[in-house]
Automatic annotation (TrEMBL):
Keyword set, alphabetical order: Membrane, Transmembrane, Transmembrane helix
Protein's organism: Streptomyces formicae
Protein name per its UniProtKB record: Uncharacterized protein
Transmembrane feature ranges: 25-46, 52-73, 82-106, 112-131
Lineage: Bacteria, Bacillati, Actinomycetota, Actinomycetes, Kitasatosporales
């Protein structure tokens, strides 16, 4: 039998390894949030009776507009972005619900679709604005 020697990690290497795991956490959490939100929206749109439908749809309705407004508010500090995104998310949901009730077209599916469209449009406008800034910056440098 042959022994394989394993060299102990130094404290600097251990810190760097731990730092790498911490840096991987936000993208992982974002992916989980997208998956949970997508499942919630899908459960609402196909009208599937499940005990997870309520919490997942609520999560989607709160996180989708918050993520869209988070992307649009790059100039704020992180805590300012959190507060503005959370309050903007609640405002979007209240405005969608109020408009649908005033027009007598209230439905869960319609609310999910309206919030999805609003959030998608906001993200699309943010991406277009960033792309325009990049092309303008490239033209100036060349």
């Amino acid at each position: 039998m042959q022994n394989i020697g394993i060299k102990a990690l130094s404290s600097d290497t251990e810190r760097q390894a731990g730092q790498g795991r911490r840096e991987d956490l936000p993208p992982l959490l974002a992916g989980v949030a997208v998956a949970v939100g997508g499942v919630g929206a899908t459960l609402a749109l196909i009208d599937l009776s499940s005990p997870l439908r309520g919490p997942f749809v609520l999560f989607f309705l709160l996180v989708a507009p918050a993520a869209a407004s988070w992307a649009a508010l790059r100039g704020l500090t992180p805590w300012g972005r959190i507060v503005a995104s959370a309050s903007g998310s609640v405002a979007v949901n209240l405005l969608v619900a109020q408009a649908m009730l005033a027009l007598h077209v209230w439905s869960v599916r319609g609310g999910v679709v309206a919030v999805t469209l609003f959030s998608s449009l906001t993200l699309l406008l943010v991406l277009l604005r960033r792309a325009r800034r990049r092309t303008t910056a490239r033209r100036r440098t060349t």
